[in-house]
Amino acid sequence: ATPGLAKMPYTRFVEVGRVVLINYGPDAGKIAVIVNVVDANKCQIDSPATGVARQLISFKRIALTDLMVEVEKGAHSKTVEAAMTAGDVVSKWEKTSWAKKLAAKKRKASLNDFERFKVMVARKQKAKMVADKLASM
Amino acid sequence: MPKETKKGAKEAKTPRFYPADDLPPAKVKMVNNPCKLRASITPGTILILLSGRFRGKRVVFLKQLDSGLLLVTGPYSCNGVPIKRVNQAYVIATSQKVELPKKLPAIDDAYFAREAEEKAEDDEGVFSAEKAGGSGPSEKRKADQEALDKAMMASIKKVEMLEAYLQAKFSLKNGDKPHEMVF
Fold it and tell me: Which residues of A touch B161 (CB under 8 A)?
């Protein structure tokens, strides 16, 4: 993204257009785009595509992702929305293994008792298959 | 003042105590209703029993009796739990439901009343070894259980793995947080 920093060990920078994952607060779990940087602690984010209101948020509450969006500093919500759809950010995010792991964790937490039983049986069947194969080798 | 204890003079005197207001006596409004059933418990819900001989077993809820207790069955042929009554407080309701047969046996609290035992004619009978041990369930109970089991197993077998689920016991494993688990 930023030129002249090719030798930096860091690859994800806080910059306008960086896609972030909100970790805490009412919008936890959603992605948003950095639209402006306030100071060393806060930035302005926006994401009409995922329903995040334009707001100031502390860096402590967000995590940087590898994805970027082409927006200029201070871009209005409409521009941000257009850029997000143009860059297909939401579907790109869903495809990352990070997003898939989060989704899997959420699914596991929402399993009901019968589903947990079925998962247990499936794990045992898989373990048996592995053990049988190992024994025959 | 000396206490007046002459019985003859009692009616003529004003009583020592009388109520401050001229109100009629309050009507007793106590009504004995069965305990309110949790919204998560509907006929056909699979429940997890938490205490008693069958703790950990998953059973099917049939209906709530007039005493407030829940009528449940294993079914017996599935996991060994007979038609019995269970207190709502000692039960976790899962979100899994089973289709109940349309006609359930007519069972109420009187069904579970203790049968009056024949009184021994003489004292020797009390110590005899013949009476030791329970006599087992009555023929009526066995018949009701069999009929109900037959009807219920038909709908249980329709759902994959449900029979195995009812046969398995519930237990908490390491790392389980019951307050965060969805049932």
Answer: 114, 117-118, 121
